[in-house]
Design goal:
Blueprint: E1 11-17, E2 39-46, H1 52-63, H2 69-72, H3 79-95, E3 99-105, E4 112-122, H4 123-126, H5 135-140, H6 149-163, E5 171-174, E6 197-206, H7 215-229, E7 234-238, H8 243-248, E8 252-260, H9 261-264, E9 274-282
Parallel strand pairs: 5-7
Antiparallel strand pairs: 1-2, 2-3, 3-4, 4-5, 4-6, 7-9, 8-9
Helix pairs in contact: 1-3
Length: 285
């Protein structure tokens, strides 16, 4: 049985419900003035390069509040600079063989609310150093002076240690999470199991103003269905804010690394604390 892409996964329309602050049932009839109970329909479909500006803005918005961004980027408050940083990273996703980018958008307006990059990694590619080159690894060579290269390389080395758990396994995988995409993780490869195939979620974001509405969960379900249909495991590297989400979807912790942001802040004790990253896997039941 092959593991090619199935056209059934190219497009799907899903209702996404806005969480209500009221104690009501899902069968309650909403009043014209209570828009919190009205379902908002989003379509999930393949994205194209024409979507890059919208995808980059979603990426920038989703990660604008992440603490490590303050150390990875010297000008993390510069909206234009961060937009172009994420646009360049996402452009590299479209160049990566085996990666599909899915977008969640409003069918009426076409406005993109979130996206997920789902990568199919083969055992051969996992063990091939040329194929393992990632968008971040390529970009390190041409980082702008606004990027803290020392932070990127130091934290990136720890991420690579987490990736080693996947090496040699054909799979679907995803390494950046809804809570952070700082520029030092990409689709990778890891070494716990025999030579097979896996899938990875190599980027995943929901616009800051659209979070907590179930959009991320629907995107994740869409990607995991592809892995289930292909009978393949799924890997990812999760950051703190989305760890519980992945646990709910059946992922298990394999390993973790801690980044002491207080140390990077020269121990000014501003409450940054420890930022924990997890290697996680979801295997077929």
């Amino acid at each position: 049985m092959g593991h090619g892409w199935d056209s059934r996964h190219d497009r799907i329309c899903l209702p996404v419900y806005v969480p209500s602050l009221l104690q009501t049932t899902t069968h309650a009839t909403p009043s014209p003035t209570d828009q919190r109970l009205i379902p908002m329909a989003f379509t999930i479909a393949l994205a194209s390069r024409e979507d890059l500006p919208a995808l980059a803005e979603v990426n920038r918005s989703a990660y604008s509040q992440e603490l490590p961004s303050r150390f990875a980027h010297k000008n993390w408050t510069d909206v234009n600079s961060m937009f172009h940083f994420f646009k360049a990273r996402l452009a590299a996703r479209f160049d990566h063989v085996g990666t599909q980018v899915f977008k969640a958008f409003e069918p009426d307006s076409g406005k993109i609310a979130g996206f997920a990059c789902w990568t199919h990694e083969t055992a051969a590619a996992s063990n091939n150093e040329v194929d393992r080159r990632t968008p971040t690894g390529t970009m390190i060579q041409k980082m702008p002076p606004t990027v803290n290269v020392e932070f990127m390389k130091t934290v990136g080395a720890e991420i690579e240690q987490l990736r080693e758990h996947m090496k040699g396994e054909e799979h679907y995988c995803r390494f950046n999470t809804t809570s952070s995409d700082l520029g030092f993780t990409e689709q990778g490869v890891i070494n716990h199991v025999a030579l097979t195939t896996y899938l990875d979620l190599s980027a995943f974001a929901v616009d800051l103003g659209q979070q907590n509405k179930g959009i991320g969960s629907q995107l994740l379900k869409h990607c995991l269905q592809i892995a289930d249909d292909a009978a393949l495991p799924s890997w990812l590297i999760s950051f703190p804010g989305s760890h519980d989400l992945y646990l709910r979807f059946g992922f298990c912790d394999v390993d973790h690394r801690d980044v002491d942001l207080n140390a990077w802040d020269k121990n000014k004790m501003r409450g940054y604390g420890v930022y924990r990253q997890y290697a996680m896997v979801r295997r077929l039941k």
